[in-house]
Amino acid sequence: METIRVPVAIVGAGPVGLVLGHLLDAAGVETVVLERRSRAYVEQRVRAGVIEFGIANFLAEVGAGERMRDEGLVHHGIELRFEGRSHRVPLAELSDGHPITVYGQTELVKDLNRLRLERDRPLLFETEVEAIEGLEADRPVVVATGPEGPVRVEADWVVGADGAHGVATRCVPEGVFSVASRTYPYAWLGILAEAAPATEELIYCRHERGFALYSMRSPTISRLYLGVDPSESLENWSDDRIWAELNARLATAEMPTIEEGTSSSARSRRCARSCAPRCATGAWCSPGTRPTSCRPRAPKG
Ligand SMILES: Cc1cc2nc3c(=O)[nH]c(=O)nc-3n(C[C@H](O)[C@H](O)[C@H](O)COP(=O)(O)OP(=O)(O)OC[C@H]3O[C@@H](n4cnc5c(N)ncnc54)[C@H](O)[C@@H]3O)c2cc1C
Q1: pLDDT band at 1 (very low <50, low <70, confident <90, very high)
Q2: d(Cα 61, Cα 166) in Å, to the nearest integer?
Q3: Is 140 near ligand 1, meaning CB less than 6 Å away?
Q4: Per-residue pLDDT tens for 22-80?
């Protein structure tokens, strides 16, 4: 069995785990990041896409924003659409000139992986954490299985950055925090389409048939979401049906149809929110998805 001893073990190589690893590295603190998926998988997994002003600045300040600055799409407003009409919200005008940046979370993960690996810092892909033991002791142990077999990491601090459904929360001793969660009666069906965006800014649309979001990732790739019934199987959503539904929800007199493209990925996710207090206790701490304040009911982008 491989045993690693390190001051900080980070479970999960999403944006939160990778940014934290990057910051600790800059502060001279050694870390190991354990990620259950392969590098290829996390660098292709389609995720979020809107980065808010403060985060974009922060990433630039810590040296992780160079490609985002060159390739990200800066938007000064968004459109809210309901009852067949569009209403532009001039975000930058309303917030002392703070735009948002459209830049795929996947791209950010690629940048952060590269930064970490260029510095030769340990990032163990295909290493699934199964348990975190001894959290109330001085030196907890992360138990995982990697491509070569069992891995044991002894650390002063273990950081659970493994997302909303990760293992870390389950390992926290009872009574440390309480989690309140609410499951909404809809799921997000997201597609990535090879189609030039039909709009310059994001459109968030409320419609009696359900929510729709027109977003994009680049001048040639659109990212679209539909709020759907979570009990319905993804197989029922053919490309034709997805485009018909997007058109039905997003249509206005000025934009009766949107350009269809080849959809290269589709996924459906039940929407649940959970909120817990930010937590750092004993040798365990949890940033990221779980402890942040409640997310909006719709995907941002
Ligand atoms: C539809 C949708 C749209 C969104 N749009 C936006 C947006 O536009 N802008 C925005 O800011 N946010 C958006 N979000 C939220 C954003 O995606 C999350 O806040 C973000 O992914 C959280 O990052 P994270 O690093 O905490 O978790 P994750 O990105 O989930 O990363 C966790 C990592 O841990 C790994 N992992 C899990 N379990 C284990 C284990 N047992 N062992 C080892 N590794 C493990 C996972 O493989 C993953 O790589 C959106 C979310 C959804 C669902």
Answers
A1: confident
A2: 29
A3: no
A4: 999 999 999 999 999 999 999 999 889 999 999 999 999 999 999 999 999 999 999 99
Q: Which domains does the chain have, with CATH numbers?
A: 2-49+104-179+276-286 (3.50.50.60), 184-271 (3.30.9.10)
Instruction: Tell me the CA–centroid distance for residue 275 and ligand 1, in Å.
Output: 15
> Which residues does 296 contact at the CB level (< 8 Å), separation at least 6?
none
Say how far residue 195 (Cα) sits from the centre of its chain.
23
| pTM to 2 decimal places | 0.88
> Using CA atoms, how far apart are residues 20 and 26, in angstroms rounded to an integer?
10
Rounded CA-CA distance 24/26 in Å is 5
Residues facing 187 on adjacent strands:
228, 270
- E strand or H helix at 31, and its extent? strand 31-34
The rounded Å distance from CA 289 to ligand 1 centre is: 7
In the prediction, which pLDDT does 177 show? 80
Per-residue b or e along 30-60, where b marks 16 or more CB atoms closer than 10 Å to that residue's CB: ebbbbbbbebeebeeebebbbbebebbeebe
Comparing CA positions, the residue from 211, 177, 172, 170 lying closest to residue 296 is 211
CB of 47 closer than 6 A to ligand 1? yes
Question: Do the beta carbons of residue 228 and residue 187 sit within 8 Å?
Answer: yes
If you measure from the C-alpha of residue 69 to the centroid of ligand 1, how many angstroms do you get, rounded to a whole number? 22
Inter-CA distances, 127 with 17, 144, 150, Å: 14, 6, 9
Cα of 153 vs centre of ligand 1, distance in Å, is 23
92 in contact with ligand 1, CB cutoff 6 A: no
Q: What ligand 1 atom has the least distance to the C-alpha of 55?
A: 11
> CB neighbours of 219 closer than 8 A, spacing ≥ 6?
73, 196, 197
Judged against a pLDDT cut of 70, whether residue 287 lies above it is answered with no
- Provide the token pair at 146: 């990697």
User: Ligand 1: does its nearest atom lie under 6 Å from the Cβ of 163?
Assistant: yes
